[in-house]
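User: I'm curious what two different proteins look like when written out as structure tokens. Can you demonstrate?

Assistant: Sure. I'll show them one after the other, since each token string lines up with its own sequence. Here's the first protein:
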Amino acid sequence: MDTTTASRLADQLSQMHKPLCKHVSARLLQAYPELTQALRIEENYSPADRLAQVAVERLNELVRTVLLFELPSIADNELSWAAGVLPRSGVTYQHQSTMVRWFFEEARRLNLTPAELELTYELERHFLDAVDQAYHKSHLN
């Protein structure tokens, strides 16, 4: 992972995190309305805002952390934890993998350089593999 490219991509994700996260959460709720049941909705939040806050923004921060520290294994640990905990609230493999795919689709709509675009594909593959492994492992236990 090229340090300069990773840093620039992390900056882009930081600058555009609110619209990116809101768009992904709106898409998720439209495709998976059952996610509303998994959210603890307070009076001040719409389901899309709450999902953005508790899931998509967390994913954005995880991606940024991986970029800044250049340690994809950080994602493996976090996604493994999520696969062990989130299904109790009705969050499935399909929900997680779709969120990852749509997050990176939306990220690629940002004004990125070719190197940054390539890095988003590399990260997406890693994150999807980590989700696959985490959910497979959690179902073996």
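Here's a second, unrelated protein for contrast:
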Amino acid sequence: MRALPFAYIFFFRGTPLLVQIFLIYYGASQFEAVKQSVFWNVLSEPYWCAIIAFSMNTAAYSAELIRGAIQAIPRGELEAAEALGMSRPLQVRRIVLPRAFGIVLPAYGNELILMLKGSSLASTITLLDLTGMARTIIARTYTPLEIFFAAGMIYLLISACFIGGFRLLERRLNRYQHYRHHIPHEMAEVDPRLQD
């Protein structure tokens, strides 16, 4: 059972995104069975081929991020849940998933930003994204420096919005850490053990 996801993650993490886009867009048309199937309406469009390639690529990276986050949960927390009599599904719902989500959030934000920047590769399969539109404008105006700089600034602005959004979400999800630091000072008179 582990071989299939391992092979999937190994392939998509080990090969360049550009090669994956080419394999889906140009490779699918090499098979007559694909051309005769219902999937050809989707695989013949560069937009959907790019979406499929980006989704499969980011799914492989996200799977590794989530696996690492789950393994990073301290064993003591799960042992404490078992001591309280929690069933395994309840542990997953109340401890594993919330803790893993908080751990994985910064790394997943980086993955989304990398995928945003990787979207510029979609212009290689005739898709007019931001980079493709910049190339079209350059062909008309012969001003590559200004146009590519403007495109870079747009990517930077979108990335800044992603970064700000993820920082707010991370701060909101990890509020308990800030609260935990204030408890010993406020509650020390009630129970001195809370200072530890």
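A detail about the second structure: Confidence is low (pLDDT under 50) at residues 178-196.
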